[in-house]
Amino acid sequence: HLGNTYFFTEEYDQARQCYTQALAIEDEVGDHQGRASTLQQLGEVSMAEDLWGDSLWYFLAAREIWKQIGSPLRHTVELQVQRVSENLDEHTIDQIRNDVIEKTKDYQVD
Fold first, then answer.
1. What percent of the chain clears pLDDT 70, i.e. is strictly above it?
2. How far apart, in whole angstroms, are the C-alpha atoms of residue 22 and residue 29?
3. CB 23 within 8 A of CB 35
4. 83-102 confidence digits (pLDDT tens)
5. How far is residue 47's CA from residue 51's CA, in Å, rounded to a whole number?
6. What mean pLDDT is reported for the chain?
7. Is 65 helix (H, G, I), strand (E, B) or coil?
8. 12-30 burial string, b = 16+ CB within 10 Å, else e?
9. Looking at the predicted structure, is the pLDDT value of residue 107 above 80?
10. Torsion angle of the four alpha carbons 99, 100, 102, 107, in this order, in degrees rounded to the nearest 10
11. Is 109 helix (H, G, I), strand (E, B) or coil?
12. How many C-beta atoms surround the C-beta of residue 90 within 10 A?
């Protein structure tokens, strides 16, 4: 994945652009596993840039999809959620959690 190449070379803007394009394709073809993985990568990019709120949002959205498809990868994301949450206050965490719930409530894995 080209986004991973950009990520590992710390070209975060390009990585984010690739991952965002990948999300559009994954949505179009119904690739739930790909979408969860890409959301998780966007969380990693945001974390690398110290964008803790964005990172938490992506990790929580990825976790929700991993849970819906029954993947054990949800446990990996849970560790990332905990790590990022250490940099945010409880009020911010609750706001982000509620936003993820609202924006993903209609996203269903078939």
1. 99
2. 11
3. yes
4. 999 999 999 999 999 999 88
5. 6
6. 93
7. helix
8. bebbbebbeebbeebeeee
9. no
10. 160
11. coil
12. 8
